[in-house]
Amino acid sequence: MSTAGVNGEVGGEAPEAAGGIHRFVVFGDICGSGTLDMDEKRLQRAAMYAAFDDAYSSVGVEPGTFHQEDRGDGILAALRPDVPPTLMVGRWIDTLYESLRAHNKGRTRPLRLRIGMNAGLVVQDRHGLVGRAVDLAARLCDSPPAKRTMDENPEVDLLVVVSDWLYVNVVAEGGRYVEPDHYRQARIRSKETDEAAWFHVPRRPAPPLVGPEGEAAPVPGARPAGGSRTGVGGGGGGGPPPPPRGGGPE
């Protein structure tokens, strides 16, 4: 028996019931949505979905081939294992940025997004997605440094936060549209999460990052002491390495 995901994805339950499959996870959230009236909420939701659709199209990910859940003022998505992660941290981010810029031109209330990215073992059942990789993507997006960075820098329309595992294994390798030197590292401490994460504002040499207690975050290159304890990485909770890269647009 197979189940259809929220966005139309169809897949068998058996492989994931056995422990999940390795997937790229994206968690997006609209900044300041609680201050919007109903008409503005509807406008920004529509623009967010349109920007995500543009980004998926740019990397050859067709509608119905991935799982996507509506989160009111945000989106949770998990890509198929064969989608090259370099495309997601490269062209996907760049296209999302360009779509936001086009939408926001001349608007007094621009659409501003925080994006958390991770990869790891994910289980999909008829209710949606579950897994520590999903939990960490959400924590990255909603982390105090991410929220404070956007609150204190209203000119920034897009902030991307990737897990330490994703930075070390994918972003740091570089590639077209990938700018590993334009990320900054900070520690995220929230609930049971105590993780290193990497922050990126497209088209900026380094994001105007503010740490959870207001301190300046460390610059890239400084490796945190100890391993990750949540999500994907040396502390467990992650899965096997992602499938070999290949295929898809460059």
Briefly summarize what is shown.
The protein is α+β, with helices and mostly antiparallel strands and 250 residues long. It is built from 6 helices and 10 strands, in the order ββαβαββαββααβαββ.
> Could you say which overall geometry the principal axes of the C-alpha atoms support?
globular
Low-confidence stretches: 1-8, 10-16, 213-250
Distance between the termini: 35 Å
Beta-strand percent range: 25-35%
Helix content: 25-40%
SSE order: EEHEHEEHEEHHEHEE
Structural class: alpha+beta
Roughly how many Å is the radius of gyration? Answer: 17 Å
Number of strands: 10
Biggest sheet layout = 8 strands, mixed
What is the number of helical segments per DSSP (H or I, 4+ residues)? Answer: 6
Mean pLDDT: 80
Topology, element by element:
Elements: E1 2-4, E2 10-12, H1 14-17, E3 21-30, H2 38-58, E4 67-70, E5 74-78, H3 85-104, E6 113-125, E7 128-130, H4 132-141, H5 144-152, E8 158-163, H6 164-169, E9 183-190, E10 193-200
